[in-house]
Design goal:
Structural class: alpha/beta
CATH class of the largest domain: Alpha Beta
Radius of gyration: 20 Å
Strand content: 25-35%
CATH architecture of the largest domain: 3-Layer(aba) Sandwich
Largest sheet: 6 strands, parallel
Shape: elongated
Strand order of the largest sheet: 8-7-6-10-9-11
Distance between the termini: 25 Å
Low-confidence stretches: none
Number of domains: 2
CATH topology of the largest domain: Alpha/beta knot
CATH superfamily of the largest domain: SPOUT methyltransferase, trefoil knot domain
Mean pLDDT: 92
């Protein structure tokens, strides 16, 4: 947890915020918080900066701080189209996607996505939001990724949502072009990368995406799990921004 984040409603008109949850435990047990100590803080979807601890109630594990937020957060740099993985995999991916700077997570249904996955609790905003905020606090940023659900991914692609993007990638095992060879720097808009379900996209889905100007790229010949592939792809592309 490299930056403590507060929801807007947690900060009053004086800039005072109090908290007594896992954030407070981190400050007390890991940062060894004391009155007068300066913490790195920020507001979810808002500015970042610092806060001074003004009081600590150790019995109730409650901390009160005076916030000073005036710095723009590091901006997200990529969008992803993600075929809905197994619920437990999606659960552990959410914080990592926020940490790595994803702006928009388009969760889609494909031929290899099990219909039962759509009932997962982590698709609900009240469940996914804390996981995403956890990732932001790890990354030291404050801009919350937007998550939208699209059971029919072809409808999403045909909607024109990505027509203006200059860099559209579909990741798929094998193939001649490697993700590490692409340069996504100096783009006027954010790149978007489409990542399939376990086992990748079907041939028909690949053909469809390529017909919509998505460039097929791979990590090589190895078949990776969805979470492993996603993090590897984002890490490689981040180097090339």
């Amino acid at each position: 947890m490299n930056r403590i984040l507060f929801e807007k409603e947690e900060i009053d008109e004086r800039g005072i915020a109090s908290f007594n949850d896992e954030r407070a435990e981190h400050v007390l047990n890991i940062l060894h918080g004391e009155v007068g100590q300066i913490l790195k803080t920020g507001e979810v979807n808002g500015l970042c900066g610092t806060s001074e601890i003004v009081s600590i109630d150790r019995d109730k594990k409650n901390i009160t701080v005076k916030t000073n937020h005036s710095i723009e957060s590091l901006k997200p740099w990529i969008d992803i189209i993600l075929a809905l993985p197994r619920p437990r995999v999606f659960k552990r991916m959410l914080p990592q996607l926020a940490t790595l700077g994803v702006r928009h997570i388009y969760v889609v249904g494909t031929q290899k996505v099990e219909k039962a996955y759509w009932g997962a609790q982590y698709l609900k905003d009240e469940i996914s939001r804390p996981a995403l905020i956890e990732g932001l606090m790890q990354g030291g940023t404050s801009i919350l990724p937007k998550t939208t659900l699209h059971r029919n991914f072809k409808y999403l692609i045909n909607s024109g949502e990505f027509d203006s993007r200059t860099q559209k990638i579909v990741a798929h095992p094998g193939g001649d072009k490697l993700i590490r060879e692409i340069d996504i720097s100096n783009q006027d808009d954010l790149p978007v990368v489409a990542i399939g379900a376990e086992g990748g996209w079907t041939d028909e889905e690949i053909d469809f995406l390529e017909s919509k100007s998505f460039t097929r790229l791979s990590l090589g010949q190895r078949i990776l799990r969805t979470d492993t592939a996603t993090i590897a792809i984002l890490a490689i592309l981040a180097v090339n921004t």
